[in-house]
Amino acid sequence: MSKIEIFEPPMCCSTGVCGSSADPELLRIAELLENLKKEGIEVARYNLSSDPKAFMQSEGISNALNQRGADVLPITVVDGRIIKSEGYPTNEEVVHLLGISSDAIQPAVKVQVNKCSCSSKGCC
After folding, report:
1. Residue 114 lies in a domain
2. Which pTM was predicted?
3. Does 69 or 118 have the greater pLDDT score?
4. Which domain covers residue 78, as residue numbers?
């Protein structure tokens, strides 16, 4: 089974999803990683401020930081290979790289969107 690791810049908490105005991209990544875990994929998420040892122990990550600085973060590693830096992978990239179905990463509860023409008097 594949392993995906995300090395992130310093954040206030381990996921970066905290405070009154959470970043939608961090919410997407948190949900994506949870769905991957449910599919049996090994997931690791490292925050530079709370887990600097992980950054030092990975030669590729350490080299990237030394050469390009912290702006290179976040870095995504799949099965030991850096596949993306300076941004989080899209859901489509993850599906392709891990060879899984896009259904595997969809939210468990789907929001129903009403497709009728709504007005102030109500819908349909």
Report:
1. no
2. 0.79
3. 69
4. 3-108
